[in-house]
Specification:
270 residues; 11 helices; eight-stranded parallel barrel; alpha/beta; 2 domains
């Protein structure tokens, strides 16, 4: 499948890609330097994920990260991006209870960071918030399956939608998100057979993480993909390089050179 070259990826671009059968690539980004590398490598979507709470701030869950912190990360990413679509997670507590608050949160992200869209976890229970944000002209990406912001409700990060009842509800929620006007959905950690049904049942692109290969695209956390984080080892993760090891070796060499007076040398001083 030959990749059509887009000067700027938009929500419409993603729909075209689904219709053509071209897979969509998506990675997380939280800062200017790494976003610049990801964008220039040709990624389609950069997700400023609330996973920043884990990989950037060291929290155990995604719950502690605030709207202000998400805007800070999103602004940093936007400054490094020329081509990718930048999607920002609405953090826990900024949209669940009150559609008006949800709209205020989404407007702040769009105005203050310059990002292109927001992502929200949940289905029918947050439909009023989604409608309000979409009515304001802000593109929304859905997120179903394992929704990390609900970790204390689930009590575990295990695979979701394994029972028929939950799978049926997930498919209904996906159809609802499509009908409401979301431009795409992330499906996290659900059986591949369920993902396939969802992908075939709706018109908008489905991006999977631990959701098999019969979806329209894939997303991973960049820190996991490049081996900067080493604690997280789910079945769906493929590490493409071990930056943890590469950086450790480089830093140890630097320390040794400083201690042994090998750095700086004659050419490295003024």
């Amino acid at each position: 499948m030959s990749n059509k070259k887009y000067r700027r990826v938009t929500t419409h671009t993603l729909l075209e890609m689904k219709q053509r059968g071209e897979k969509i690539s998506m990675l997380t980004g939280y800062d200017y330097s790494i976003a610049k590398i990801i964008d220039s490598s040709g990624i389609d979507i950069i997700l400023v994920g609330d996973s920043a709470s884990n990989v950037m701030a060291g929290h155990e869950t995604t719950l502690p990260i605030t709207l202000d912190q998400m805007i800070y990360h999103a602004s940093s990413v936007v400054r490094g991006v020329k081509r990718s679509l930048v999607v920002v997670d609405l953090p826990f507590g900024s949209y669940q209870s009150d559609p008006k608050e949800a709209l205020r949160s989404a407007i702040r992200i769009m105005k203050e960071s310059g990002a292109h869209a927001v992502k929200m976890e949940g289905g029918s229970e947050i439909k009023d918030s989604i409608k309000k944000i979409l009515n304001a002209g802000i593109p929304v990406m859905g997120h179903l399956g394992l929704t990390p912001q609900s970790i204390y409700k689930f009590g575990t990060y295990t695979v979701r939608a394994q029972e028929n009842k939950e799978a049926k509800r997930l498919i209904e929620d996906a159809k609802l998100l499509d009908k409401l006007g979301c431009f795409g959905i992330v499906l996290e950690k659900i059986p591949a057979s369920v993902s396939k049904k969802v992908t075939n049942a709706i018109n908008i692109p489905v991006i999977g993480i631990g959701a098999g290969s019969d979806v329209d695209g894939q997303v991973l956390v960049t820190h996991d993909l490049v081996g900067l984080s080493t604690e997280f080892n789910p079945r769906f993760l493929r590490r493409y390089v071990d930056l943890n090891d590469i950086m450790s070796k480089a830093i140890k060499s630097y320390i040794k050179d400083v201690k042994n007076l090998n750095f700086p040398n004659k050419n490295e001083q003024y």
